[in-house]
């Protein structure tokens, strides 16, 4: 039987439809919806991503030789990504690529099932057959330059021209294969930067044994803490602890994580903002003072603070397979076993930086069902489909989860000479003037939650620091204080520390 020839246009339409349904469609599996508006929004987003994907497929299809070389590879990568998305809820991120590079083969073979092997073999056979068919039975496209120009415009529009489409498109197939790899390489470039800011800085430690924990929170605004007078008791455990001191009047200039975290970790300020991207952090100074340092992360790694993550002696990633389009549970409490193991390490002086997911959107992912105290909760990923009550309720449930998480950390520290400093990277808009979430400059984003907990042993050894902390608690300060306060809390003496910027003086 002779296999019929078809036009290039028909071949492209059929292949794009298959990819859009099977691969792009899988990216939207599990997206929470509650009504017709949410469904319509989801379909529009799917159409945008599928349309961009069809442009990429069109570009590689124009040449039968290019198609034969690239399509089987694209099909294999996409099939594997679909498998892990549907079975494990795994998204391809720079973190996942880095883990794939550093983990041994045994670790990754443990994730290979017979179902995946069957899928890969079937995909390879099908994609090669498709390439052979394209080579021999698809008519060459008429007006190929016009087709190419159209595909290029359609491929770059959602990533380079229409900004609101960028993040949803690059986080999904097929763009994610390129962008996640680019992010990984950018992170590696950042980690490899030569920063020797404190290489010759004198450093001395004033304590033989102390544990300092710095928790970088996410999207938690100060006025939603019961500790700070919020009408709801969102901090029942922290509020019952007399060794917790809240600092409700902290100001941050930055309103998204990429810039706020480097500012928090370094001696950057409004006069020297570039220090955040050029200098080392307090981690290096504490290492030089004899501290074992660790970074425990529940967020993705991005270029602006990848250097600091690798500045620590130990780096542990939790939930590395999640991205911001993951809707399964993604809890900070998942870090607790690793935190306990870090505490058991043989080190008299230690620093642990904990980067939490906190109150990031999608809120329902970031608190367990047992802490869904405020209802009704959000039930759609489309913000415009939700009431302000739902948004605030679910956000406040994330605050309850942060209260429980921080209290669990302090429970592990209570019998030690230890201090914990919590600072959120920024706040969150919750309907004020119709504004929600963050990454745009809303007033509610500039007052992040900040608090300090100390153990009884720490208070006995450093009573003057605790007295100063209580005196300074309600002063208006900026996140400039964190770098200097961490060093002071650790009883580390160095000329780099500005005593006027320490809450412990």
Could you please describe the fold and organization of this structure?
There is one protein chain. The strands form four sheets. The protein has a seven-stranded mixed β-sheet, with helices on both faces. A two-stranded antiparallel sheet has the order 1-13. The protein is α/β, with parallel strands linked by helices. Helix 9 crosses helix 14. About 45% of the residues are buried. The protein is about 50% helix and about 10% strand. The longest helix has 26 residues, at about 35-60.
Relevant terms:
two-stranded antiparallel sheet, single chain, 505 residues, elongated, 48% helix, alpha/beta
Furnish the topology, listing elements before pairings.
Elements: H1 8-27, H2 36-61, H3 64-88, H4 94-102, H5 105-109, H6 114-137, H7 144-161, H8 166-170, H9 175-191, E1 204-205, E2 210-217, H10 236-239, E3 244-246, E4 250-251, H11 257-265, H12 275-278, H13 282-288, E5 292-297, H14 303-311, E6 314-317, H15 336-343, E7 349-355, H16 388-413, E8 418-424, E9 429-430, E10 436-437, E11 450-454, H17 456-461, H18 463-472, E12 477-478, H19 481-489, E13 492-493
Parallel strand pairs: 2-7, 2-8, 4-12, 5-6, 5-7
Antiparallel strand pairs: 1-13, 3-11, 8-11, 9-10
Helix pairs in contact: 1-2, 1-3, 2-7, 3-6, 4-9, 9-14, 11-14, 15-16
Compute the number of strand runs: 13
Strand content: 5-15%
C-alpha geometry:
elongated
**Low-pLDDT segments:** none
Q: How far apart lie the N and C ends?
A: 88 Å
Output the radius of gyration: 26 Å
Largest sheet: 7 strands, mixed
Average pLDDT works out at 93
DSSP helix fraction: 40-55%
**How many distinct helices?**
19
Question: Which structural class do the helices and strands define?
Answer: alpha/beta
Strands side by side in the biggest sheet: 3-11-8-2-7-5-6
